[in-house]
Amino acid sequence: MLGNVAKMLGSSGLCVTQSVLLQSSRNTFVLKRRFPPNLYKKNQKPGKLRGRHFVYDLVEDTTIKKKPNLEVVLTAFVEGVGSKGDVVSLKPNEAYNKLLLPGLAVYKTPENVAKYATEKDEKETEVHSSAYAQRTVNKLESLILAVVMNKDHPWVIEPWHIKLSLRKAGYYVPDSAITLPDTPITGPDLLKQNKEFYCTVTINNLEQARVRCRIHHWSTEPSDRLPYVFEHWKLDAEPLFGEGSPAKA
């Protein structure tokens, strides 16, 4: 009889053990007694604790406490962060997910700082002038710049025209950093209305961004103005000098 019961228990799944990963919760609560217990003399037994002695006030909850920034050493150039060998301080989640996991950075230690600082000094050429230079290039190259010119008086597009147009778009660029096409662009000419040409903007004397520019004629007389085109930057435009022309910057 007992043997049959043992066989039944052995054949059932009651004794099957499963591997379970148990991990403790990483939190800490700092508490303080609201009513401290009474003092007792040396070598005497402490007094009995009452119910009021088990009432606590919360002093600190580490789960909601702001964690300090994490310092890491970059192993490669990271756009918007820094160059190889730079020590940067970021939020823990951002540093771990965007830099440490992809292998773009290592934890800051004296050995890592010395290692990547030496490699940084041994580099002959600097690919990027700053951490935000490539981001600026990407922003400029995604821009369709409206160059507004007079419809009633003759003009020739010069770097300062592009400078003013960029300033309207929120970019401050000196005249010396703007390179126009070799072929002069003159007007007014309605055949050039809404046609595109490229100009080159040099950033920190290193990076270059090719900016798409579109000519728009404007008149001070409301009756002479061209019809308004809604969201003209979304429409296709013809090249001013023809595709593949060497006159492009």
Automatic annotation (TrEMBL):
UniProt xrefs under Gene3D superfamilies: Ribosomal protein L9, N-terminal domain
Describe the location of the Ribosomal protein L9 domain by residue ranges: 71-116
What keywords were assigned to this record?
Mitochondrion, Ribonucleoprotein, Ribosomal protein, Transit peptide
Which InterPro entries does the record match to this protein?
Ribosomal_bL9, Ribosomal_bL9/RNase_H1_N, Ribosomal_bL9_N, Ribosomal_bL9_N_sf
Q: Which Pfam families match?
A: Ribosomal_L9_N
Tell me which domain of life the UniProt entry assigns to the organism this sequence originates from.
Answer: Eukaryota
The principal location of this protein is: mitochondrion
Which molecular function terms from Gene Ontology are attached? structural constituent of ribosome
Q: Name one GO biological process term.
A: translation
Q: Which GO terms describe its cellular component?
A: mitochondrion; ribonucleoprotein complex; ribosome
Q: Where in the cell is it found?
A: Mitochondrion
Record-stated family: Belongs to the bacterial ribosomal protein bL9 family.
Q: What is this protein called?
A: Large ribosomal subunit protein bL9m
